[in-house]
Amino acid sequence: MPLQTKLVQIPDFLLDLLFPRFCVGCGTEGDFLCDSCIETLPQLQPPFCYRCGLPIPENSICPDCQNLPLTIDGIRSLYLHEGLAREVIHSLKYKNMKALAKPLAALMANYLVDNPFEIDTLAAAPMHAKRLRTRGYNQPELLVNELSNVTGIPNKTELLIRTKNTISQVSLTADDRLTNVNGAFQCKDGYFHDRKVLLIDDVCTTGATLNACAIALKKGGAASVLGLTLSRKC
């Protein structure tokens, strides 16, 4: 029997003995993200822009959403991208802590219970194949896989692909971000026709990537596209 198969069959309690879990936030043994640290995550509370979810003084539309043409129907985020939220996402994204996807997806599922969206399909913001080979995994896809398991909502990430290996968005302005990812995504077939899609990503900065995905999905016939991210940069 291959070693990989044997490892899959090891009970969870034995895996915990061999590879104990330590909280990313406080180092306590037991979970990768303990309940006490979850309580300290900086929740993004209203008021915020009802299009992109950016915190603003009152519930309205932020200047960027007033000036930039957006196709996505709305974006919401669980947390501000600061403190422990930033540290946890960094660990998921860059430190190969893929196991964090499960507790983080559970937080997203709880958010959807408290804030019901009219959705019937999940998809993750996809990574270009070349970049995926370099990093080894796409963290939004890890999140959406776990979220689909928890909620039972179908995950159709494989039908949304990134066709352009665009440059990093980090140093770009809001306008340049939209231009950079313009036409970077497409749908594989007609599955999304009349679907109400929830796009999952780890961090929202301006919403340009999620919006570019929404353009492709609506070209593919999607009735609506909403975005949900773990955190929002301000």
Structural notes for this entry:
The protein is an alpha/beta fold and 234 residues long. Helix content is 38%, strand content 15%. The strands form two sheets. The protein has a four-stranded parallel β-sheet with strand order 1-6-5-2. Strands 3-4 form a two-stranded antiparallel sheet.
User: Helix proportion of residues, in percent?
Assistant: 25-40%
Q: Report the mean per-residue pLDDT as an integer.
A: 89
- Beta fraction of the residues? 5-15%
Identify low-pLDDT runs.
1-7
* Overall number of structural domains: 2
Global Rg: 18 Å
Widest sheet, order of strands: 1-6-5-2
Shape: globular
Stated plainly, the CATH topology of the largest domain is called Rossmann fold
